[in-house]
Structures are given as structure tokens and as C-alpha cells.
Amino acid sequence: MKVAFDPIAIDYDLRFSLSPIGKIQRSQVYKFLTPWIHSVKGNRVLDLGCGTGEDAIWFANQNFSVTAIDSSSEMIKVAREKSEGLPNWERIQYEALSIDELHFHFKDKMFDLVFSNFGALNCVDPSYFSTLARTLSERLDSNGYVIFVIINNFCLWETLYFLYKTDLKNILRRKSRSPVFANLNEETKIRTWYYSPESFGQYFNENFTIKKISPIGFMVPPSYFNFFQNNKNSFYLNVLERVDQYNPFHRISAFASDHFIICMQKK
Predict the structure, then answer these.
(1) Does the N terminus or the C terminus of the chain have fewer Cβ atoms within 10 A?
(2) Among 206, 192, 99, which Cα is nearest to 153's?
(3) Is the whole model's pTM more than 0.90, yes or no?
(4) Which of 3, 17, 122, 6 is CA-nearest to residue 75?
(5) Cα 174 vs. chain centroid, distance in angstroms?
């Protein structure tokens, strides 16, 4: 069955993963992850919405055994082709599977960490989150962690951008309580829900305790800001990255960044 992300799988890395902003935002995620993965007792990771396998490969290189799922069979195909032959690629198992089908699967497997990057969970109907939280709690070993990167419901960069363009309709699009049809490309849209760190955490508080929240892309803008994707303007992007690195107000700025990363531990 064809799904929304199938048409963009073949050039997703070129458009995002390998773009200047995409590489910086992912490096911010890995900087956050590095100390936490040393707190994990085991080495079994479940990667939700793995896309083209960038994060699965990174985890494998940190000596984790990775089960990576994505609803897009085309994304899984790209991920397998990219991973095969790389060091530690045997540590990765890819499977075409939707996140909202997770409760039917892996009942005989346990994990030490569940990870999801760059808004994969924003594309899941929130009515499923209570089931997801319960399922993840059941699949996680004692004291296991979940670490999710979520698209924020307020982004300072985006708000200023749409104010400049006097695009009043889009200024508040992330604040909608109903799903927004976000563009994947010129022909494909997908239902997307946006959350603040507080509102997202509430879906999981029965099964998990929040340990830390940080911004991803506070000074570094969203990936569609083409001005900063131009190599001629890389100096400005590097300055913004440096400011992000030394931002002392992580918890506060997480409420105004493009994405936020939330770490929760199983109760």
C-alpha cells in the first residue's frame, strides 16, 4: 500500500538529511543523545519512523542493536540499500510497519531505549498515544527510556517569517488543535499535529516520567529557510549554530524552537 512518504523517499536525504540545516539539527539531536545512551543499561533500540535509516546507522555505530520501523516501504528500501555493507550494518533490522500498529508487534521482544526523530510522532493521531504509551512501557525493560524529537506548536523563526510576509493564516497554523495538512512536496500532504513540550508529555505521564526537555533548532531555523541552505550564506548559519551551542536557557527556549527533544523514563 502506498503511503504519504513513499514519493519523497528517494530524495529525502538530499532535501533534508544532507542539507546544511538538516545536518546541524541532527547533530544537535546526537549531542543530546550521547550522555543519555550511556545511562541505558542494555543495547536494544527501537527506532520509530526511521525514514532513510540515518539514526539507525548512528545507533548501530554506537554498538546498539536496532529495530527500525517506518510506514513507508520506500523509505525502508532506501534505508536498507544505504545501510548494507556499512560497518555494523548487521546490527540493524528494518521493517515496514506503521507506528499505530505497534501494539500488535514485537510482543516477544524487549528494548532498552525507544527513539523517534524529527516529528514522526507528529504524524500519528493523538488518540493512539495512550495505547502507544502503554505498549512502549510493556516493551521496555525496567527503567528504560523513550527519547522523541517532536515538531513544536510554536516556532519563533516561523512566526517572525510569516509576520514579515503578512501571512496571517500560517502564523497560527501550528496552534491548531485539529490536524494540519503539511506539505511533503508539491503534490503530497500529510496530517500533522503540533505540540508544546507540556502538552505532549501529558499523553505519556501515566507510564513515564519526564527527565529532560531541550530545543532542537532554536536559533538554527527550520529546514525550509532556503536563504540559509545556500552555501554562500553558510557563515550566518554557523553563527546561529554557535549561539545554539551556548544557549543557557534550554528549557525555556524548547517552547519556541522548531523541534524539541523530550527524554522520559519508564515508571
Answers:
(1) N
(2) 192
(3) yes
(4) 6
(5) 16
